[in-house]
């Protein structure tokens, strides 16, 4: 069997460089809205199935930089099949698909994969696809209108009974006191300032989502190593996972992510991690998606799963 090759490393580096450039420019790609929209929605494939993990982040970046409001993305062929046509001169955006393939007989060692039965091994691969936003395609407007988010807060100053009910289903105690939100692993509970201490209801609920994403890493849940690590770099990575997870949850339920000022201190650590490891943002988005899935599943608002991002 011939040697398997792909452009995996180039995709890792390309996406990492894109994230570094945006953070250096003062923009966190997961915490900004665009094109007049108050809430970034989760990007959707042609079938309506939500993208996940790293693809959510890269398509948010594309929407932010190009001013797209539509959450719908299609390949060139998918557009044609629906009777549409990508406008001349439009540039697509990259999404990736990650999986493993079983190859070989083990005679060349295990350096490039995981050994299995009979000496065969699994080799990871990452494939890129180019997709276009629905706003770049003529002839499909009626098929891909911009959907409303699942939930929208009706009054930014009031509690939202539906959101309270959703968050109330999550099996982590929430206590209200003090001025600083945090999750305490040893006691397995979240501490939140009182609702009135937040500027808007979205600030409160997205901050709660952030702390509950931390709670997802408890040893009895996702057992995320960075949650209990005392290393400074691991602490920063855990904060990145929780921030990304909260962004995914916020996009799914229709609230605006609170751009927390205390996270500015982590920007240099995040930049260092990205520069030192081109897989860092892929790992963080995968763990963040796992955290968001755990939270949304208990809330009863889980998104459809896919095989696409396991890099």
From TrEMBL:
GO molecular function: single-stranded DNA binding
Polyvalent protein metallopeptidase domain residues: 162-286
Sequence ranges assigned to domain N-terminal in this UniProt record: 10-132
Residues that span the membrane, as ranges: none
Stored InterPro entries: Antirestriction_ArdC, ArdC_N, MPTase-PolyVal
Domain of life of the source: Bacteria
Protein name per its UniProtKB record: DUF1738 domain-containing protein
Biological source species: Sphingobium yanoikuyae (Sphingomonas yanoikuyae)
